[in-house]
Amino acid sequence: MKNRDHKEFNYFEYWTRRNFLKAAGVWAGAGLLQPLFPLIGAGKSIAAAYPDEVLSIEKYTKGRVKPGMVISKDNANLIKDIAPEGLMSELQRGGEIKIGETTMRPDAVNPKFWVDATLRNKGQAMLDKKGQLWTKDGKPWIGGDPFPEPTNALEAIWNYTFNPRRFDDLRVVSKIVTTDASGSVLRRDGAIYMQIQTVGRLVVDPKPVLPKYKDEIHRTLLSITYPFDVYGLAVASTIYYDAAKLPDTDLYVPNLRRTRRVPSTQRFEAASPYSTYYTSDLDLQNDPVLTWSWTLAGRKPMLGPSPSNLGARAQGATKDDFVFPDVDVKFPRSTWELRPEMLLVDGVPHLEGANYSKKRMYVDGVYHRAQMADLWDMAGKLWKFFVFFTGDCGVSDNAGGKAVDLTGIIFADLQRDYHSNVQFYNKVGDLDFRVNAGLTIEDWISPSALMRRARR
Amino acid sequence: MKETLLTRRRQEMRQAKLLLCELLVLLLMSAAQSTAWAQKAQNYTIGPFEITGFYQFTVDTPTEHANPNNSACLSFIVGPFKCSPGLQKKGGKPDLLLMRQLLDLNIFGKFNENWSVTFEPRFFFDMTKIADDHFRQYESLPDRFPGNGWMLRGGGNDFKAEMWQAYVDYRSGNWWVRTGKQQIAWGEALGLRVLDTVNPLDLSQNLATDRIFEEFDRVRVPQWFLRADYTIPNEAIPDLTAEFILNPGLVVPTILPPQGSPFNVVPAFLKVRNEVRQGEPTVGGRITGTVDPVQFSVNFITKPNDDAVGVFRQLLPTTGFPANCLAPEFPPGPCIGLNGHHPRIYIVGGSANYNWTWAGAVLRAETTVTPNAPFQSNIAGTPVKIVDRPVWKTVLAVDRPTYIIPGLDSMTIGFQFFETYTGGNKAGLTDATGAKLDSNVHIFTVFFQQPILDKRVSLEFFGMFDTDDAHWLQPVVHWEVGDHVRLDLLYNKFGGAEKRGSRFGSNLDFVNGPEFRFTYGF
Fold first, then answer.
1. How far apart are CA A56 and CA A78, in angstroms?
2. Cβ distance of A229 and B241 shorter than 8 Å
């Protein structure tokens, strides 16, 4: 058998599933390749859907890269064709990753109820001529990935951004450490983040929509717990279902002792001193979908973060462990694996003040979830690289499974060589991580709730 | 010789006190730095209590001249005249307006999802009169009025400790009840007291001339209130909430700087006796909600007037009262004794904001009507009684972040227009400061905030312009150094031809000058 060069595995050129199936001449039951979706429905692994070559990094790289291998600047060239540009830049400046086996479970970074809803609601989603997501009977989307087999960038991006965290509600507790080029800690921030989905709800009643908030997609709350001078500052955002409309923002400002509505146009500015991320960057893509334009730049096997990166939840982990450990270093180590199909979705912002010329979201073709992105400045020079590690958080998702959510974030400013590394915890002080817990907008994310919950 | 020794001894004592203060600062800083919690972005906790706070050192210096209020004398022959050094020990411009250390703690205890408590003790050490020999002894942060025990403030002339806030929160379903010593702030306007009049202000340290971005947080006096909020379930108006507030009558008036202090605003020839009547309740409430895209509030409150409205009591010295208003060693002279009354007032009003998405701006409006605002009625320049007049206050404002400087973050720009209309016959009437009334007073304020250097440094400018030619300008540089240190350098500049006491004009130019603050937070 002829040995193919790994470049042949570019999905646009050869390996799109459709083309592969066409080439094989069968749809199912051949034992070699099948459409992915029925396999997921049958509770099987993804192994049957993809050729072996894209499920094993060892085969894919003809033995040059193997699971267990540590990649650093010394051997980064081995992965340059399957790594995002930002990851390459990180490795060349001192980052280290370990290569893991490809995860075969289709629900490794999505909760089971979400996967079930994707199966259940298949075929019911449509985009109108503006690109707005609806059900076929013109209602807000009802949950799960709307487009299980995305054919264009907009479908891929809707799959992720409709509910990036997948839960009906969640509250996470995080700490952020920002380091400079030398690795010195510049600033620490602490925050509580909450999200309450108002449509497409799958677990917590009322489902699938909160009737009072049917014109919204979700509300978020960012409440700062550290450092001292912003302690108690809370930012409540109302994100509308109309994906061309900017959110509403209400603040609780401890100094003012009251809430204050503010414009939500400051989306491309550092969230705090030294930090490397903007409001626009939260959840990788925090601006409404239709305020950016999207194109599909490619589909191909690529490295993606492994769900084994548990961050602060990895008990006993040290800085030597490749689990994105909770340590104050510039490059916490992490594990990466070959993903058989990655959609390269390029976005261009159309908002005042936008200082990115392009963002490339890497949307996993199995999970339909983006976990990393490259960003370019207005001069077209690579500027930032973000990684959103996702894994089993070890607590119940209140739907019969384990909560699968963010376990760490890297916001890397490659031009300044600054990093804002985010760790998540199951409990800090009196605050715990919880999902599908029945959190309500009236209780948490409204102007009066901001007053009630104010800690200063 | 004896005097020289005495002077030297005083200087040594002053130096020793300053050294002690500096050591205290170093001790606090090293203690905070040595604890693990300060390094881990986690606040210090003891059981259910979380402790945060800050230490702050402030130096405020004047650049213009001595406070004329401290040397404003009265003569039976020539009338008002300047009698330097008056209430100061030494004439001329003082070296300092304020040199102060402040430790502010916030202790938050959460017992469960329903119950929590908050305590905010504050400790002041005012070193102004230790470091600057222009001043006689005066009481810093005074609270001399009947019923002052409820302020929970104590100490000597230089050091004061107080329980600034202490309250219990109860939350359950649609209910939120906060009981205790607390600040309550209403309204949309910033830095303008229109709806934000529930609590009085403590102006005794430096009026309200600190960094304007912090508004009245450090000077809005927390009072004992029951505050109950109920969010009314309904389908039409999201977040419709009714609020009821009640202070059973533990009254605190506006607290002014003591006479003789750098910020004194009461002429030396006046002695005002604060006739605060405890037992007079403050009762109010408001309805808030959202009718998209407008957020609104409708407010009502009745309370004793914060500011003392003076009425002539007696001319001093009198028989059996040989002292004048000035220091004992100063030549005798007349002074006027006033009774400061706090008549009950009623305020109704409302506010609204509108998210103007097309313009990327938020529009704000706020208005109140006080049908019985109290004023002094004067005969021959002497306030003899209090009369009521209706007062209508209105603020219109717009906030819009705007990209001004290429490559930098947007500049936050705020603009406010403030009108005060006083109705009825105003002949012979003056306000609480003794200033003649105008039918209309128009004020514009602007606020700019430009972050630079990765948001580590913030350049701010606040300007208040009274159309009767008065202005207050405050440029600020705010620098965030790491997690714990904040530095502020600001300059206050009051000026203009308008000199009336209730306006922000050249009547306040004695506080013109730079202020520096070092803050260490934890």
1. 15
2. no
Looking at residues B155-180, what average pLDDT do you find?
97
Residue range A85-124, pLDDT digits in tens: 999 999 999 999 999 999 998 889 999 999 999 999 999 9
Nearest CA in chain B to A446: B239
d(CA A22, CA A252): 57
**Other residues' Cβ atoms within 10 Å of the Cβ of residue B511:** 23
In the prediction, which pLDDT does B78 show?
73
- Assess B360–A contact: CB distance below 8 Å, yes or no: yes
Average pLDDT value for chain B: 90
CB-CB contact of A272 with A233 (8 Å): no
H helix and E strand count, chain B: 2, 26
Maximum Cα–Cα distance across chain A: 73
Q: B35-521 in CATH: which number? A: 2.40.160.10
Subunit contact A190:B241, Cβ cutoff 8 A: no
CA A434 – CA A425 distance, rounded (Å): 10
Query: Contact at 8 Å (CB) between B371 and B392?
Result: no
- Dihedral sign, CA of A84, A90, A92, A95? negative
CA distance A163 to chain B (A): 23
Cβ atoms of A43 and A105 within 8 Å: the answer is: no
How far is CA B207 from its chain centroid?
5
Where does A27-168 show beta strands of DSSP type E? Answer: 70-71, 97-100, 125-127, 133-135
CA distances from B155 to B10, B102, B162, B369 (A): 22, 14, 9, 39
| Distance of alpha carbon B493 from alpha carbon B499, whole angstroms | 14
Is B13's pLDDT higher than 90?
no
Confidence of residue B34 (pLDDT cuts 50, 70, 90): very low
Residue whose C-alpha is closest to residue A229's, from B55, B474, B184, B28: B55
Tell me the backbone φ, ψ of residue A17, rounded to 5 degrees.
Answer: -60, -40
Structural domain spans, chain B: 35-521
**A427/B contact by beta carbon, under 8 A:** no
Reported ipTM: the value is 0.89
Task: Count the Cβ atoms, other than its own, within 10 Å of residue B117.
Answer: 16
Strands A431-432 and B223-231: unpaired
Highest mean pLDDT among A171-175, B88-92, B268-272: A171-175
- Residue B179 at interface with chain A, using a CB cutoff of 8 Å: no
End-to-end CA distance of chain B: 49
Position B7 scores a pLDDT of 57
pTM listed for this prediction: 0.90
Report CB contact under 8 Å: A447, B290.
yes
Residue (of A180, A425, A421) closest to A319 by Cα position: A421
Q: What is the pLDDT of residue A430?
A: 83
Farthest-apart Cα atoms in chain B, separation: 85
Average pLDDT value for residue range B164-187? 97
B103-156 pLDDT, tens digit per residue, is 999 999 999 989 999 999 999 999 999 999 999 999 999 998 999 999 999 999
Q: Show the low-confidence residues of chain A (pLDDT under 70).
A: 1-34
B106 touches chain A (CB under 8 A): yes
Give the helix ranges, DSSP H, for A172-273.
Answer: none
Report the C-alpha gap between A287 and A274 in whole angstroms.
22
| Inter-chain CB proximity A270 and B409 less than 8 Å | yes
Span B295-353, pLDDT tens digits? 999 999 999 999 999 999 987 765 444 345 655 545 556 788 999 999 999 999 999 99
Residue B292: how many other CB atoms lie within 10 Å: 11
pLDDT number for residue B1 = 47
CA distance B284 to chain A (A): 17
| B409 token code pair | 């973050």
What residues of B are in contact with residue A175 (Cβ under 8 Å)? Answer: 40-42
